[in-house]
Amino acid sequence: MALLKLGEQPIQSLMDDTPGAQLARTLFDPVIDTLLAMHPWHFACKTFDLNKNTDGDFLVPTECLRVLKCRGEIVGGKIISQSDNISITAIVRVSVESFPAYFVSLAATKLAMEFCIPLIGEQNVFRMLAALYETELQTAKFIDSTTAPVSNIDSFSLINSRF
């Protein structure tokens, strides 16, 4: 999709021997990991229950791109906490097949931006893609934030005092 947005021929595989495939092989994983980590996308959030390892700390699972909630101090790939077990919520790598449509479009536009200068060298196309990316990013964040179930506030003193 990213190559099509640039007016280039699509590829069948990242192993194709074309400039587009070579760029995709190099840039796809880092760009997607960055897009996933930049926002707490609901489709990429996962909760982990961790137990202490033999060193007395917790290891951040390798699939985590960004830890969102944690009771402890993160130092490198470890979490230091006095508890014997903890739960963390993190953004994780998600298979491309699991991406919702709004994220697929966003990722394709971001990749097209990254491919633009090395592949076609057009500043005007790059600027147009950058503007499209900003619009798609806001739309994707809105859709993602409104698709999660709304949690009820069962016991909150101000609400209880009203009734």
Explain the overall architecture:
This protein is an alpha+beta fold and 163 residues long. The chain has one domain. The chain has five helices and six strands, in the order ααββββββααα. It has helices spanning 2-5, 19-37, 101-119, 123-147, 157-162; strands at 45-51, 58-59, 64-69, 73-75, 78-80, 85-92. A hairpin with a 2-residue loop joins strand 4 (73-75) and strand 5. The chain is globular.
* Share of residues in strands: 15-25%
- Give helix % range: 40-55%
How far is it from the N-terminal to the C-terminal residue, by CA?
54 Å
**Number of DSSP-assigned strands:** 6
- Strand line-up of the largest beta sheet: 1-6-3
The helix-and-strand class reads alpha+beta
Question: Tell me about the biggest sheet?
Answer: 3 strands, antiparallel
Total number of domains? 1
